[in-house]
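Subgroup meeting minutes
Present: P.N., E.W., G.H.
Scribe: E.W.

1. P.N. recapped why we're keeping a running log of single-chain structure predictions: easier to compare across weeks, and new members can see raw inputs and outputs side by side.
2. G.H. added today's entry (151 aa).
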Amino acid sequence: MRLHTQRKAFSMLTAIFVILIMASIGGMVMSLSGKMVKETTTQFQREQAMLLAKSYTEYAIMAVMANGTRSAGGNCLNTITGAYNNTYNITVDISYIGNITALGNPSQCTTLSNAVVTPQSPLNIIVDAYVSYLDDNGQNITYHRRSLQKI
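Output recorded in log:
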């Protein structure tokens, strides 16, 4: 009888040991899964910010070109702001380099003060696109894209 009781006790210890090992493995899998979801979300937010910055840069170039065809008295386009999906805030700053007299009202244009400009200089713009958003930790992240475009 005593041998039969010892076998049951050994089986109980083995079962408890196996349950502990399985629980540890399950905890590690859950932890790894959570980290992967967080990393995927972070990567998605960054990619979305990059695409928005590229899109707003192209929009700014198009808007400057359309604005440059206005008659005298028009205003220079210096800033564009926008928002996407109540998550991303976009600000685009435009600086002009070159001969800006062809633009409607050049005194209102933001120009680079240290740029060497001659009357023959072509018109160029520097487009700075800033996309800011909150990540999962509540930190404010800002993605910046700078482009130089000949107009």
